[in-house]
Design brief:
This protein is mostly helical and 122 residues long. The chain has helices at residues 7-22, 43-56, 73-77, 85-89, 95-98, and strands at 61-64, 100-101, 107-110. The chain has five helices and three strands, in the order ααβαααββ. The protein has a three-stranded mixed β-sheet with strand order 1-3-2.
Length: 122
């Protein structure tokens, strides 16, 4: 994540505020999906920074890398991608085994896991 006073950080705080207040009548959203039509458009960058901003404002946050073809969250965090989401879906590991904590309070993440040649089936 960027320095707290950088223009990029301020942009993510603005996005977070818009998300929080867009659902004011029904409460805080429980799930946010970040996607795009093509690779290289910044899904991982946006997801990681948005998750960090929510965690910094005392919201328990779980970032899940569901990009089963080109996962990136493990590289951003500097860890092995296994075990992760695919391993859990294939009943190879328990949920507790794939949730990883960060040094920042309130922020945990799940990597994509073992990439399969038939990832489209998931």
């Amino acid at each position: 994540m960027y320095e707290s006073d950088s223009p990029v950080s301020e942009s993510f705080r603005a996005i977070k505020a818009r998300i929080q207040y867009s659902k004011a009548e029904s409460g805080f959203p429980k799930l946010i999906l970040v996607t795009s039509a093509a690779e290289g458009e910044g899904k991982s960058f946006v997801s990681f920074n948005l998750a960090g901003n929510f965690a910094q404002s005392n919201k328990r946050t779980l970032l899940i890398d569901c990009d089963l073809r080109r996962p990136r969250i493990h590289a951003i965090m500097g860890v092995d991608k296994k075990p992760g989401l695919i391993d859990f879906l294939l009943h190879k590991v328990k949920l507790e085994e794939i949730i990883r904590k960060t040094r920042k309070n309130n922020l945990s993440y799940i990597t994509a896991g073992s990439i399969s040649h038939n990832s489209a089936e998931f």
